Amino acid sequence: MDYAAVAVIGTQWGDEGKGKIVDYLVEKADVIVRYQGGPNAGHTVVVGEETYKLHHLPCGVISEGKISILGNGMVLDAVTLCSELEAMEEKRSMQEHLFISDRAHLIMPYHKRMDELEEDYRKGAKIGTTMRGVGPAYADKVTRMGLRCGDLLDEDTFKQKLAFILKNKNTILEKIYGVDGFSLEDFEAEFFPFARRIVPFITDTTVMLEEEMEKGSKILFEGAQGAMLDIDHGTYPYVTSSNPITGGICIGAGIAPHKIGQVVGVAKAYSTRVGSGPFPTELLDETGDSIREKGNEYGTTTGRPRRIGWLDGVALRHSCRLNGTTFLAVTLLDVLSGLEKVKIAYAYNVGEEVVNNFPSGLHILEKSIPLYQEFEGWAEDISSARSKTDLPRAAQEYLRGLESITGIKVGMVSVGPRRDQTIMM
Ligand code: IMP
Fold first, then answer.
1. I want to staple 271 with a disulfide (CB 3.0 to 4.6 A). Which of 129, 291, 309, 368 is the partner?
2. Same-domain pairing of 113 and 168
3. What is the mean pLDDT of residues 369-373?
4. 342-to-247, 280, 402 alpha-carbon distances in Å
5. Would the CB of 17 count as within 6 Å of ligand 1?
C-alpha cells in the first residue's frame, strides 16, 4: 500500500487488533504518531518469538530506525511511560527516535486517585474505566487546570503550578470525597524521578511533523481505543475521554485535515467491549464464551474478560462514515472457524421501527434488538491462509456480507497474530 499519510483507526470499542495491522503497515512508514489516549491503551504485538505489550508507545516503536511521536492530544503517565521506555532501551537507545509533544498533558497521581473515586461515586452506573487517570487528566486539560509535558522543562515553575493546582485538588479530595490529599513532598519520590527521565524527549512535535512531511517522510497515525468509545460519537457516557476517530488526528497531532491520505478501519470479525455500556449484539451464551476463550479476549491493560458479540454492522457503518474509512482491515477471522453459523447485524428493531443509523440515546440502544444476516460457518482452520482464495467459500461469503452491509471494501484480513498471517485482498 502506498501512502504519504495513513491512519489506522479502531472502528469498534477498541481492542480490534490495531497493533497487528500497524505492525504490518509500519515497514513503509518513517514516522509513527499517536494522537490521543494514554496508558488506557494496550497494544499487543507479536514479532517473531517476542511479544510486546505497549501502552503509550506506538506499535511502530518496535521497528528499528523509525521515529515515534506522542502527540499533543495524548495524556501521559510519566511512571508507566518510563517503564515502557526502559523495556525498549534494553534493546536500543530511544533518543533521536522518540519525541514527546510539549503540549501533551500529564496524568498526575491525583488523577488516578480521582478516577477511582469517581468510579466509586457512580456506583451502579460505573463506566468501567481502566483506572489509569485518563478521564480526570482530560477533564483538567479542558478546565485549564492541567500540567503539560512542556511545563517540565522548567521544574521550578512546574512546582509552583503544581502547588497552586494541589490546593484545588486537595479541597475536592478532602472535602468532597473525605480522603487524604497530596503534599508536594509526595511528588518527590513518586513523580519527579520519572518526569525528569522523559524531559530529553520533549519537543514541539507539530513543527517536527510538518518538517518530516515536507521532506517526503511517510507518516502513520496510530489510533488507540475505537470510534465507538469516542467522547463525541461513541456510546456516551460509556466512552473514553478523547477522540479516537480520524478527526482526532488533526487536533491531537496538529496537522491539517487534507494531509491525511488513506484511512484503514480496523474491525474485528466479531465485536468485543470492556467496561460497561450498551452492546446490542452481545452474546451472553456459550458461543460468546467459546469466542472469548479462542480469541483470548482478556484486556491487555487490565486483564478483564471482554464482553463478546456478533459483528455489529450498524455500529460499523456509523464509525466508517465518521472515519472516512478507505478500506477495512478485518482481524481475528480465524477465531470464528468452527462455528456452525455466523451473524452480522444490519439494522436494529426499536419497537415497531427499523433503525439503520446508530442511535445516540442510551434509552434507545437499550431497547435495540439487532436484525441479523446469517451466514454459513466454516470448519477449516484458516490460520495458514495467505490469499483470498485460500479462504473457505463460507468465510469469503461472510466478508462479502460485511462489505455489502457497511458499503466499505475489505482490503486486509488477519488470520493470526504473526506478521505473515495477513491476507491482502
Ligand atoms: P478510560 O479510557 O480508562 O477512561 O475508560 C473508559 C472506557 O473506555 C472503559 O469502558 C474502558 O474499558 C474503555 N477503554 C479505554 N481504553 C481502552 C482500550 O484500549 N481498549 C478497549 N477499551 C478501552
1. 309
2. yes
3. 98
4. 33, 16, 11
5. no
- CATH number for the domain harbouring residue 218: 3.40.440.10
Do 225 and 189 lie in one domain? The reply is: no
Half-sphere exposure at residue 65, Cβ-oriented, CA atoms within 13 angstroms: 6
Choose the residue to mutate in 115, 271, 274 for probing ligand 1, maximizing ligand atoms within 8 Å of C-beta.
274
Query: Of 49-53, 127-131, 282-286, which range is least confident?
Result: 49-53
Q: What is the pLDDT of residues 291-343, one digit of tens each?
A: 999 999 998 777 889 999 999 999 999 999 999 999 999 999 999 999 999 99
Domain shared by 232 and 215, yes or no = yes
**Residues 113 and 96 occupy one common structural domain:** no
Residue that has been written with the C-alpha cell 480465524 in this structure: 334
* Catalytic one of 43, 55, 56, 318: 43
Ligand 1 binding pocket includes 229 (Cβ within 6 Å) = yes
Residue nearest to atom 16 of ligand 1 (CA): 40
Q: Which triple of cell numbers denotes residue 353?
A: 421501527
Instruction: Write out the H or E segment, with its range, that includes residue 424.
Output: strand 422-424
User: pLDDT tens for residues 144-188?
Assistant: 999 999 999 999 999 999 999 999 999 999 999 999 999 999 999
Residue 82 shares a structural domain with residue 222: yes
Share of the chain above pLDDT 70, in %: 98
Single out the residue of 229, 335, 236 nearest to residue 287, CA to CA.
335
Place of cell 489506522: 8
Whether 390 sits among the annotated catalytic residues: the reply is no
Matching residue, cell 503539560: 148
Query: Same domain, yes or no, for 137 and 149?
Result: yes
Over residues 28-42, the pLDDT tens digits come to: 899 999 999 999 998
pTM above 0.90, yes or no: yes
Task: Indicate the residue among 197, 221, 250 that finishes a domain.
Answer: 197
In this structure, the answer to whether residues 188 and 283 fall within a common structural domain is no
Do residues 83 and 125 share a domain? no
Number of domains the chain is built from: 3
- Cell numbers for 251, please give them: 487536533
Catalytic status, residue 15: yes
Q: Find the 163 Cα to ligand 1 centroid distance in Å.
A: 30
Domain range for residue 420?
A: 266-424
Boundary residue ending a domain (232, 263, 294): 263
Q: CB within 8 A of 326, min separation 6: which ones?
A: 262, 263, 264, 265, 411
The pLDDT assigned to 337 comes to 97
Read off the CATH number of the domain in which 418 is found.
3.90.170.10
